[in-house]
UniProtKB/TrEMBL annotation:
This is Glucosamine-6-phosphate deaminase. GO terms for biological process: carbohydrate metabolic process; glucosamine catabolic process; N-acetylglucosamine catabolic process; N-acetylneuraminate catabolic process. Its EC number is 3.5.99.6. It comes from Candidatus Galacturonatibacter soehngenii. Belongs to the glucosamine/galactosamine-6-phosphate isomerase family. NagB subfamily.
């Protein structure tokens, strides 16, 4: 894994956005795998800035998002679709028809997971996948478990994830307990991966991801087996590095 040491959150945002920009410039019809959470917000802000300056063209870009909460509609303010629309898609010239999410309102999990697997396959896979890192080592919503799950699946969120994500909701009770997530296989099939990690609360888990044994108990450790991962992390996130 390549490690890019950034000073702080702002520096992560600029460096990771530069890598994504280069991808779009080199391949205007790139398939981007996108992530939500606090970490990518600064990256998306930079991409919007550079689009406004005329440096980026999203007209041919296609996207697949990692995950979506079950039970939240696309226009629910807490849905990941709403997040992406408001942080990136509504501000650039992407065709919304080319943006894809698991449908959190589909109750038939088998049907929805098959549909999303097909969406990713029909696009020919992912050129560049942006990832954040959960404090428990999750990527997307691939939670720590006994096995790595290859394809899109419905997951029951672990309590620490529900608690961590409750900061975006009015109360803990409002956090959905289930989600659909792209599987580890789709993530690992991406041609390039960027893992963005910020803050001291991620330092212990980032050390395990970079230096620990590969185990589904820390799902992001699987990235050690990918040939083209770039970790962009700030000094705080790197403070526990062995
Ligand atoms: C959520 C998302 C993940 C994200 C993680 C970390 O659980 N499903 O894709 O990486 O949060 O988020 P943050 O960047 O806010 O720490």
């Amino acid at each position: 894994m390549k490690l890019i040491k950034a000073r702080d959150y702002e520096d992560i945002s600029r460096k990771a956005a530069n890598l994504i920009s280069a991808q779009i410039i080199l391949k205007p019809d790139s398939v981007l795998g996108l992530a939500t959470g606090s970490t990518p917000i600064g990256i998306y802000n930079k991409l919007v800035d550079w689009y406004n300056k005329g440096d980026l063209d999203f007209s041919q870009v296609r996207t697949v998002n990692l995950d979506e909460y079950c039970g939240l509609s696309k226009d629910n303010e807490q849905s990941y679709c709403y997040f992406m629309n408001h942080h990136l898609f509504y501000h650039v010239n992407i065709d919304l028809k080319n943006t894809n999410f698991p449908n959190g309102m589909e109750c038939d999990a088998v049907k929805e997971c098959n549909r999303y697997n097909q969406v990713i396959e029909d696009m020919g896979g992912i050129d560049m996948q942006l990832l954040g890192l959960g404090t428990n080592g999750h990527i997307g919503f691939n939670e720590p478990s006994d096995t790595f799950i290859r394809n899109t699946h419905q997951v029951t969120l672990l309590n620490d994830t529900v608690v961590a994500n409750s900061r975006f909701f009015d109360s803990l009770d409002e956090v959905p307990k289930k989600a659909y997530t792209m599987g580890v296989g789709h993530i690992m099939n991406a041609k390039k991966i960027i893992l963005a990690v910020s803050g001291e609360n991620k330092s212990e888990i980032l050390n395990q991801v970079l230096n620990g044994p590969v185990t589904p108990l820390v799902p992001a450790t699987i990235l050690q087996f990918h040939p083209d991962v770039t970790v962009v992390a700030d000094e705080a996130a790197l403070s526990a590095l062995a």
